[in-house]
Specification:
CATH superfamily of the largest domain: RNA polymerase sigma factor, region 2, helix turn helix motif
CATH class of the largest domain: Mainly Alpha
Number of domains: 2
Oligomer: single chain
Distance between the termini: 40 Å
Number of strands: 0
Structural class: mainly alpha
CATH architecture of the largest domain: Orthogonal Bundle
Length: about 200
Amino acid sequence: MSAMAVARQLTRSGTPQAAPVDDEKLLVRRGQAGDNDAFARLVERNQTGVYNLALRMTRDPEEAVDMTQETFLRAWRSLPGFRAEAKFSTWLYRIAYNVCLSRRIVHPSTFAEPSAADAIPVPEGEEPPALILRQERREWVMAAMNRLTPAYRLVLDLYYWRDCTYEEIAAILDLPMGTVKTHLFRAKAALRTVLAAEGGAA
């Protein structure tokens, strides 16, 4: 069952459907007011991003579907308390991350502040961002990311594929900005090492 189906099951009632809207903030307000169709539209707009994030973490399509459904179930229950201080997608990714924690896919200690002794040598060569921007290499880069730790996969996915800013990643992971930058730097370095080992110059 898709997250969209979950949303429609959750919101099934006799409430009349409002006219379609595209503004996310308006959809959120309508959803908080009990507009079932508005929440379903929010799910429809965000389910691919949540699923892909979950898939990146689990590397298991079935578990990623379960995590996506759990994320939207929690979002539905928590929607009245959403204050729109962050983007709705950022809020959803935070919920998805908490689902990861609850299923022990990621442990909070994974994001402990790294020490200088843990620094990863950065090989010379092309930066991952340039590679990622090349459509023909996306699958190759994604395969390389799957060889990294869940924490590194998570920060790279949020940064490159979800287009999250440092501030948004910090909010999602509930980490200081400096820690986010450090982990992202180390994740990029680890990715470059894997790409170099697999013939990144090809």
